[in-house]
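G., the chain you wanted modeled:
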Amino acid sequence: MAGNAALPGFGAPAVGFDTPFEMLEACHERVQRTLALLQRLVGYLHGQACDDSARQAAHDVLLYFDLAAPLHHEDEELHVFPPLLAHGDAAMAARVRQLQQDHARMDADWQAARTALQALAEGKKTAFSAQDEAAFARFATAYAAHIRSEEDLVYPAARALLGADALQRMAQDMRQRRGAAP
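Predicted structure as tokens:
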């Protein structure tokens, strides 16, 4: 049940800051793995009593969405969305504004989901309510649609607009905001 002990959101072996869009896509993979861990945790607690393994899984989900996911959204808000709003067509600009609204809504959904996970991780709760599980499902569903829109439409359009210098600045900023070595 326990997840990976490494700090979430930091480089997969084949992906580094020098390839910022690949890094963003790798983060999406980690989002999906963390959401899958959350789903396994919910199922686990349906058939088992809460134990250290369940509390650790809750902690791992909290760690990812408290630390790495906000940095990922900030990457998009700083580097991916602005060129599309400035140079994209009206349909792309509308898509980007929707994604910005998604970030705010997903943050609110996370706060609702976070409360139950933190209580479980801290041993103050031993099971999730139907409301908790609905909050988890709402959060996961929003993320799935958001990721599809970014990977299918927005990232390719932004890549087409950003030159080598802009990509280098993006990579450097991503590295610095995470405190990674240059």
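The helical segments are 20-47, 52-87, 90-121, 130-161, 164-177.

Shout if anything looks off.
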